[in-house]
């Protein structure tokens, strides 16, 4: 790589954050950590600071800042910053080349957008940001010239299967002009794919978080169990690849070996395959357009066994259908869905609602929200807030 890249990792203590640091450590000549952020795991953040000496570490409150400073060595070179503005500052700073957006949920929107507005190379893991604000997010990237690279394994796979000219126009490439008929978004079906449908309702947080193929944060793990994760990814794909409804399809592929596919006009289908390890898409984005080592071994086809495929069962995964419907109903619907789901999943993880009630909370919010246009950030944030309020209300009714 020509010049050492300065990298900010938003959500450095999380699952994606840790995998990103793993790649950076393998290529310390090419990448230097500029800033890291964390919300709760302050000891973990201190360990990262000791190991990588980033210039800044951002925490949410002055209590956490005091705690972090206690853990840091007296001669630490890392300056501790506090709060939401600091998150934006380390995303947009002139010295920064690359921002890994790996905060989970709506909390990631503002700093990710700050990186987009500043025209950075943005490695997008935080799918909720795009689901909340797709249209204005893509518009902002086009205006600033920010380079969006998808980290989500499916979207990274799709990106890799696109012609180079389309890769250069994330968010605006015309699929038909590139000879593409359809994008095939694959998903494993999560841990409950084969459970008797009547047993779904009372599944516990721990069983929902036991994903058969991937190790991930708890929120996305629950989303995988409901398959709302695939629904959020469907919306994410719509924005990143500028899809029409007939150009986007979900296929269940339980082994998670194929990470998604692109079907061309002439009958060719191009797929990206690999081990289910997020270091592959992260390394792809960090190195792009070069290929760099990720520590992930290549597939051993003699050991793979069968690859199977099936259509999604919308009775088992009602949230997936809901997300697909929201995708084509407009921005307010997907913003509301994302907000309602974040509340419902947090309440489920805290064992205040049942697994089977997550979809009910989302559905209820969507039926009660007014779907006015959302072309400005303030409108998006207002829908988000209103939806959270209604979702919390619904949780209280269900209790
Ligand atoms: P995680 O829960 O492991 O980590 C989340 C990170 O965000 C942590 O560093 C945490 O400190 C930070 N954070 C949480 N709440 C915050 C708040 N309110 N303000 C600021 N920071 C906050 O999550 P993850 O699995 O690493 O996922 C991160 C994002 O990447 C999510 O949007 C997820 O959908 C997406 N993603 C994850 C995977 C995966 O394999 N883990 C795959 C694809 C996409
Ligand atoms: Mg994914």
Automatic annotation (TrEMBL):
Cofactor(s) recorded in Swiss-Prot or TrEMBL: Mg(2+); Mn(2+)
Q: Which residues form the DXP reductoisomerase C-terminal domain?
A: 273-389
The metabolic or biological pathway listed in the UniProt record of this protein is: Isoprenoid biosynthesis; isopentenyl diphosphate biosynthesis via DXP pathway; isopentenyl diphosphate from 1-deoxy-D-xylulose 5-phosphate: step 1/6
Tell me which residues make up the 1-deoxy-D-xylulose 5-phosphate reductoisomerase N-terminal domain.
Answer: 7-134
The entry lists its GO molecular-function terms as: 1-deoxy-D-xylulose-5-phosphate reductoisomerase activity; isomerase activity; manganese ion binding; NADPH binding
Q: Which GO terms describe its biological process?
A: isopentenyl diphosphate biosynthetic process, methylerythritol 4-phosphate pathway involved in terpenoid biosynthetic process
- What SUPFAM superfamilies does its record include? 1-deoxy-D-xylulose-5-phosphate reductoisomerase, C-terminal domain, Glyceraldehyde-3-phosphate dehydrogenase-like, C-terminal domain, NAD(P)-binding Rossmann-fold domains
Question: Which UniProt keywords are listed?
Answer: Isomerase, Isoprene biosynthesis, Magnesium, Manganese, Metal-binding, NADP, Oxidoreductase
Query: Which residue numbers delimit the 1-deoxy-D-xylulose 5-phosphate reductoisomerase C-terminal domain?
Result: 148-241
Provide the E.C. number(s) assigned to this enzyme: 1.1.1.267
**Residues bound to NADPH:** 13-16, 126, 128, 217
Kindly list the positions annotated as binding Mn(2+).
152, 154, 233
* Matching Pfam families: DXP_redisom_C, DXP_reductoisom, DXPR_C
InterPro entries per record: DXP_reductoisomerase, DXP_reductoisomerase_C, DXP_reductoisomerase_N, DXPR_C, DXPR_C_sf, NAD(P)-bd_dom_sf
Could you say which residues bind 1-deoxy-D-xylulose 5-phosphate here? 127, 153-154, 188, 211, 224, 229-230, 233
The record lists the catalysed reaction(s) as: 2-C-methyl-D-erythritol 4-phosphate + NADP(+) = 1-deoxy-D-xylulose 5-phosphate + NADPH + H(+)
Q: What does this protein do?
A: Catalyzes the NADPH-dependent rearrangement and reduction of 1-deoxy-D-xylulose-5-phosphate (DXP) to 2-C-methyl-D-erythritol 4-phosphate (MEP).
User: Hey, which family's this protein in?
Assistant: Belongs to the DXR family.
Instruction: Report what the protein is called.
Output: 1-deoxy-D-xylulose 5-phosphate reductoisomerase
Q: Which organism is it from?
A: Idiomarina tyrosinivorans
């Amino acid at each position: 790589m020509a010049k050492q890249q300065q990298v900010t990792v938003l959500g450095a203590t999380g699952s994606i954050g840790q995998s990103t640091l793993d790649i950076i450590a393998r290529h310390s000549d090419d990448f230097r950590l500029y800033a890291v952020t964390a919300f709760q795991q302050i000891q973990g953040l201190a360990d990262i600071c000791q190991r990588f000496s980033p210039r800044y570490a951002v925490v949410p409150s002055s209590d956490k800042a005091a705690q972090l400073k206690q853990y840091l060595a007296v001669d630490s070179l890392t300056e501790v910053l506090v709060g939401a503005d600091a998150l934006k500052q380390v995303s947009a700073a002139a010295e920064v080349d690359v921002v890994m957006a790996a905060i989970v949920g709506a909390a990631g929107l503002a700093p990710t957008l700050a990186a987009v507005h500043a025209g950075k190379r943005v490695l997008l893991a935080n799918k909720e940001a795009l689901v909340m604000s797709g249209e204005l997010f893509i518009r902002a990237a086009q205006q600033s010239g920010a380079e969006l690279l998808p980290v989500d394994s499916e979207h990274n796979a799709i990106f890799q299967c696109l012609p180079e000219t389309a890769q250069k126009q994330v968010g605006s490439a015309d699929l038909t002009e590139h000879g593409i008929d359809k994008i095939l978004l694959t998903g494993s079906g999560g841990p409950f794919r084969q459970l008797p449908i009547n047993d779904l309702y009372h599944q516990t947080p721990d069983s929902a978080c036991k994903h058969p193929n991937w190790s991930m944060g708890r929120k996305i793990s629950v989303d995988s169990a409901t398959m709302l994760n695939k629904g959020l990814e469907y919306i994410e794909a719509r924005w990143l690849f500028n899809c029409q409804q007939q150009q986007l399809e979900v296929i269940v592929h339980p082994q998670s070996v194929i990470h998604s596919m692109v079907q061309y006009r002439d009958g060719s289908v191009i797929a990206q395959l690999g081990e289910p390890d997020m270091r592959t898409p992260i390394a792809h984005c960090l190195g792009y357009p070069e290929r760099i080592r990720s520590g992930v071994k290549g597939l051993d086809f003699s050991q793979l066994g069968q690859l199977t495929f099936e259509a999604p069962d919308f009775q088992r995964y009602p949230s997936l259908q809901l997300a697909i419907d929201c995708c084509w109903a407009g921005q307010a619907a997907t913003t509301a869905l994302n907000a309602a789901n974040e509340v419902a999943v947090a309440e489920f993880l805290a064992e205040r609602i049942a697994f089977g009630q997550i979809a009910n909370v989302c559905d209820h919010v969507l039926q009660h929200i007014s779907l006015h246009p959302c072309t400005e950030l303030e409108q998006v944030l207002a829908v988000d807030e209103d939806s959270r309020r209604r979702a919390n209300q619904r949780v209280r009714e269900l209790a």
